[in-house]
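Work Package 4 report. The design task specified in the project plan requires that, given a folded chain encoded as structure tokens, an amino acid be chosen for each position. We show below one input record used in the internal validation round.
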């Protein structure tokens, strides 16, 4: 619910020539993790990614 609220707020500020474009916003996105700890997942799901 919060991700959709944030997405709708941010999408109003997206313009083709502006600093923020709609294609840069993702909801429920798999994000690669940094290497290091053994047994760590390769990706985790993030609610909102810009």
């Amino acid at each position: 619910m919060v991700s959709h609220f944030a997405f709708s707020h941010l999408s109003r500020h997206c313009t083709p020539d502006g600093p923020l474009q709609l294609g840069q916003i993702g909801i429920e996105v798999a994000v690669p993790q940094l290497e290091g700890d053994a047994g760590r997942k390769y990706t985790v799901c993030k609610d909102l990614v810009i």
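Helices lie at 2-11. Validation will be extended to a larger panel in the next phase.
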